[in-house]
Amino acid sequence: MRKARVAMLPVDPQGVARNEGCASVLALERHRESIQAVVRGCHERQAGAHARLLDHVLPQINRIVWAILGGDIDHDDMVQETALKVVRGVDQIRDAALLAAWVRTVTLNTVRSHLRRRRLLRAIFPVDLAAEPPAPLSDDPAPVGLRRSLYQALAGLPTRERMAFCLRHVEEYSRDEVATALGCSARTTKRLLERAVTRLRSFCAGDASVCEHLEGTES
């Protein structure tokens, strides 16, 4: 009987939209309050506060590291190193609304340093550091072979070009968001993306699947 009564009520699309909008606003407000409580707890050295902080930030850290490194043998180390830096540095965050942007910056700086260090080591001690990619993220539709070939090609890019490409085309940041994340101008970002796509097309000229994947790639 309940379903019948509900079905008989007039449907107001604007009312539905308002209700859904209110629910979204309330959910966002609760999320903000939750983050503020976590940051405050860290500042006050509350028991378990750092564990709650990691619950908030680890998905973001993991996703950014995955986007740039892919199924890399150092992926887990990068996530752990970044998480440690976040825990140690969270006291400098006074506005909880800035937490996500700060975590992104810490993550990108950690990965950037790692990639530059790796390029130096490879120049001195040439070794193959490629690894079989682990299971993809749940919303990653790319076939394993394509992912492997693409990340092998990405390994040959200069660090900033690789990061710009991955943020733009893996994480789907806008150009402005990439510029903000990398701390450079929109013009520099455009140039980095153009160079990255050009190099990748050259590197993968003999791989039909990657070339097809890059065919519609815009900078």
Present the secondary structure layout:
Layout: H1 2-8, H2 13-43, H3 49-69, H4 75-89, H5 99-124, H6 144-154, H7 159-169, H8 175-182, H9 186-203, H10 208-215
Helix pairs in contact: 2-3, 3-4, 3-5, 4-5, 7-8, 7-9, 8-9
Please, could you describe this protein's structure?
With 219 residues, this protein is mostly helical. The chain folds into 2 domains: 16-45 and 52-138, Rna Polymerase Sigma Factor, Chain: A (Orthogonal Bundle), CATH 1.10.1740.10; 142-219, Winged helix-like DNA-binding domain superfamily/Winged helix DNA-binding domain (Arc Repressor Mutant, subunit A), CATH 1.10.10. The chain is 71% helix and 0% strand. The protein is built from 10 helices and no strands. The longest helix has 31 residues, at 13-43. The N and C termini lie far apart (56 Å). Mean pLDDT is 79; it is low at 1-20 and 129-138.
Count the E strands: 0
Named at the architecture level, the CATH assignment of the largest domain is Orthogonal Bundle
**Discrete helix count:** 10
Structural class: mainly alpha
Order of helices and strands: HHHHHHHHHH
Classify the beta-strand content into a percent band.
under 5%
Kindly report the CATH topology of the largest domain: Rna Polymerase Sigma Factor, Chain: A
Regarding CATH, which class of the largest domain? Answer: Mainly Alpha
Name of the CATH superfamily of the largest domain: RNA polymerase sigma factor, region 2, helix turn helix motif
The N- to C-terminal Cα distance equals 56 Å
The portion of residues assigned to helices is over 70%
